[in-house]
Amino acid sequence: MTAGRMQISGRQIFWIIVCAETSPMESVLLTPLFQTAKQDAWISMAVGGLAGLLITFLIMRTSLLYPKQTIVEYAQTILGKWFGKLFVIPYLVMALLGLGVILRQFGDFIHMALFELTPLWAVVLGFLLMCMYLTYAGGIEGIGRSAEIIGPIVIFAVLIVKVLNFSSLDVHLVQPIYWDSGWKQILLGSLATMSFVGESVVMLVLVPFVSQPNRCMSYTMWGQAISFVLVTGSVFLVTSIFGPNLAGRLLYPAFEMAGFISIADFLQNVESVVVVLWIFGYFIEVSVFLFVTCYSLGQWLHLKDWRKSIWPVAAILFILAVIPKTLSTATIEAPRMKWTLIGIFINIVIIPLLIYIVGYCQRKFKTSVKMS
C-alpha cells in the first residue's frame, strides 16, 4: 500500500488547510478565548497563530526528511520497527478522539442552528456518512478537489461578513489593550488554539501524496497563516460588536455576529450563509482526518486496502460523538482540558521534534560515513 497511487497538488493542500481550520476555529474557538483573555482575545489568537506557524514548520521539516513516506513508515525507518510503531499510537488515539470531538461540535452547532427537533445522533450520522463516501470513493484526491472548489467560496464569504459588519464596530470595546488581562491570561488564552494547531499533523501523512513535496512547505504555511489572520479578524470584530463579556457568554459569537448584519432592512439573515460555509469547512476537515486516520491505521496494521478500516473507524467516531451529555462539553470544555492540551503538545511538538533530531542525526552520520 503506497502513497504514489494518489496525488494532490500543493494548491489543493493550501485549500485543505484553509477549509479545515477557518470554519472550525470560527465556530468553537472564540468563546474559550473570550472567557480567558476578555478583550485581548484577538491578541491571544495572534500569539497562538504565530506559535502554530512554528509548530507547522517543525512538522513539515520532519515530514520532508522522508518525503515519500508517511509517519507510519518513516517512524519505523528512523526508530526501528517496534519503537516506530509505538510512537504512532498516540497519533491514532489523538485522531480518533479529535474526530469524535469535531463531529460532536458540528452536530451541536447544526442541531442548534437548523434542526432543533431532529435527534442529535441523526445529524451526526448523516454527516458522517457523507464524509465516509467522499473518503472511500475519492480518497485524498477527491478531498483535495472538493477543497479546491469550496476554499475560495469560504474565504470570500468570510471576508464579506467582516466587511458588512464594519458599520457596527465600536473600537472602545476592545480597550484597554493588555492591561486588564496581562501576559499570563493572553498566553493562557492562546493555549486554546493548540487544539486547532494540532490539525497541521495531517501533513505527517499527506506529504507523500503531494506531487511536488519541495513546495509543500510554503503552501501549508500560507494556508495556516491565512486561516489565523481571518480568525483573528473575526475575534477583533466580535469584541468590537458585542464586547468581551457578552461574547464570552455566547456559544457561537461569530454566528451571532453574522446575524447582526442588517443593511437597509433588505440584506438580513446572513447567518444562514454562515451555517452553510461552516458545514463545508467541517466537511473537508472531517473527511481529511478520516482519510489520514484510516490510511495510517491501514499501514500500521499492514492492510492491503486501507478502505477496509473506514467502517470500524466510523463506528468508533459515532460512539465518541454522541457520548457527551451536554452541548458545552465538546464545544467549550474539551478544547481547554489540561490533559487535552498536554496530549496535543506531545503529539505536535515533542514526538515530531524527537523524530526529526534522530532522523537528522542519522542522515548526517550516513553522509559522513560515505564521504570517509
UniProtKB/TrEMBL annotation:
The keyword Transmembrane helix applies. It is found in: Membrane. It comes from the Bacteria. Its main location: membrane. Keywords: Germination, Membrane, Transmembrane, Transmembrane helix, Transport. One of its GO terms (cellular component) is membrane. It is a multi-pass membrane protein. InterPro entries: Spore_GerAB. GO terms for biological process: spore germination. It holds the Pfam family Spore_permease. Belongs to the amino acid-polyamine-organocation (APC) superfamily. Spore germination protein (SGP) (TC 2.A.3.9) family. PANTHER family: SPORE GERMINATION PROTEIN A2 (PTHR34975). This is Endospore germination permease. It comes from Alicyclobacillus acidoterrestris (strain ATCC 49025 / DSM 3922 / CIP 106132 / NCIMB 13137 / GD3B). The lineage of its organism: Bacteria, Bacillati, Bacillota, Bacilli, Bacillales.
